[in-house]
Design a protein that fits this description.
By secondary structure, the protein is α/β, with parallel strands linked by helices. Strands 3-2-1-4-5-6 form a six-stranded parallel sheet, with helices on both faces. Strand 2, helix 6 and strand 3 form a beta-alpha-beta unit.
């Protein structure tokens, strides 16, 4: 395969962003932090330690970061058996695979969480590889996760497209030198995605699938 379609997962292929917001808000609340859900939502997509720093500041007690992350994982894990794929997410990946794209997931999820997400998408036969934030030193918006995805696919940046739902995704893809496609299903406004580097923006996987012939994935 000579071209790669790299996909973020949470909020892009699976409708989980607001579950993450609720789990992070509750984890923070239990630790005595009052944080607006709006602010949590805008931080979703960052690696756990970066998300906590973004919300609580650099002067926080960093010794508690792992405790907050573990609380979030435990709360979010309650949903693993019923994570909802976004409409046509699996069909989109299967179509791209049939069209000759190497489909690579680029996500901060791993272990049981990643398995639950892949079960929800139900398109394992179309997925070439998965690049996790655990595989690199810095997660999004640093480019390393996307660059690792390209290495796994064996494709240069100029032959790849990255699809994501957050400004962190768009910045990571842009810094990696790939074309970026934004989707609105994660709840981030179109203007924010475009400002962060999106070449095109769609409502979600279903609209992208219906518009493939006129999209950067044509």
């Amino acid at each position: 395969m000579e071209r790669a379609a790299v996909f973020d997962v949470d909020g892009t292929l699976v409708d989980t962003n607001h579950l993450h917001v609720t789990a992070w808000w509750e984890a923070l609340r239990q630790a005595g932090h009052r944080v607006r859900m709006h602010d949590v939502h805008r931080a979703v997509g960052l690696p756990s330690s970066d998300l906590v720093a973004h919300l609580l500041g650099e002067d926080r007690d960093t010794a508690l970061d792992e405790e907050l992350s573990s609380a979030h994982k435990a709360l979010y894990g309650q949903y693993f058996d019923r994570l909802p794929a976004l409409p046509d997410a699996g069909r989109l990946l299967k179509r791209l695979h049939r069209d000759g794209w190497a489909v690579v997931l680029a996500t901060s999820a791993g272990g049981a969480e990643l398995s639950a997400l892949r079960r929800a998408i139900d398109a394992d036969e179309a997925i070439t590889a998965t690049a996790s934030a655990d595989d690199v030193e810095r997660g999004k918006p640093a480019p390393e996760t996307v660059e690792h995805a390209l290495e796994l696919a064996g494709v240069p940046a100029g032959r790849a497209v990255f699809v994501g739902d957050t400004v962190w995704d768009m910045r990571a893809g842009s810094r990696a030198g790939v074309r970026c496609v934004g989707v609105l299903c994660g709840g981030i406004p179109r203007a924010d995605l475009e400002e962060a580097g999106a070449d095109a923006v769609y409502d979600g996987p279903a609209q992208l699938l219906a518009s493939l012939s006129d999209s950067p994935l044509a």
